[in-house]
Design a protein that fits this description.
alpha+beta, Alpha-Beta Plaits, 2 domains, 7-stranded mixed β-sheet, 11 strands
Length: 222
């Protein structure tokens, strides 16, 4: 489904036009990058995804927590609202406007954990001049960037994580929990078994944390 005119969703069309302008001018590399949920990788892996997100946040001088503007605008689901972690100048702006609160490192981790538990996708959001302004956790029904990805086919605006899902077919019971959990349609039943469509996988890790048989894992992309 493409946004052929502004009457279909003027707000989303405006956001898409803004991102396209920034891309054309070379002011952003992409709109966002997916960060896997913390429970998706085993401790033996060389990078822990939650630590990736926390590392981004830890480099900031100031971090504030605000309501997700996407879900505030669209209101299509009942997922937690307070999931947007803002950095530095953006954090200061929201604090001064009374729209956010300053948070500790423990609160940052808890925000990421709760978002993953609710099936929200972690993303590092980019503004002009290639700076990360937020680590947000959002849903496919409300998030501007994920809507643009799914409805407009603009995979160039949302970069997959550094990981991809892999699974042990012998342990899989075809319960299909991963099918309903995956926001990108990367898991489908096929011939009584589960099939993973690697081309659709953005490496968010939500399927890993929901698999009752622990048959799915994340592995580094090569």
């Amino acid at each position: 489904m493409h946004l052929s005119n502004n009457r279909e969703d003027p707000n989303l069309a405006e956001m898409l036009a803004k991102y396209d302008t920034w891309l054309r001018l070379g002011r952003i590399p992409y709109a966002s990058k997916v960060i896997p949920v913390g429970e998706a990788l085993r401790p033996v892996e060389w990078i822990l995804p939650t630590d990736q997100a926390v590392s981004i946040l830890s480099r900031a001088q100031l971090v504030a927590l605000a309501d997700c503007t996407c879900r505030q605008y669209y209101g299509r689901c009942s997922h937690p609202l307070e999931t947007c972690l803002l950095l530095d100048q953006m954090a200061q702006s929201f604090l001064e406007a009374g729209k956010a609160r300053k948070v500790s490192a423990d609160e940052m981790r808890e925000t990421l954990r709760l978002a993953g538990e609710n099936g929200l996708v972690h993303q590092a959001a980019y503004m002009p001049e290639h700076t990360v302004w937020a680590v947000c956790s959002c849903c496919t029904c409300c998030c501007y960037r994920l809507q643009i990805l799914r409805r407009c086919g603009r995979a160039d605006l949302v970069v997959h994580s550094d990981y991809r899902a892999a699974f042990d077919a012998a342990r899989c019971t075809s319960c299909q929990a991963c099918v309903s959990r995956c926001p990108f349609g990367a898991w489908q039943p096929a011939g009584g078994r589960m099939a993973h469509l690697a081309g659709r996988c953005l490496g968010c890790g939500l399927c890993v944390s929901t698999c009752p048989e622990e048959a799915i894992r994340l592995e580094p992309r090569r």
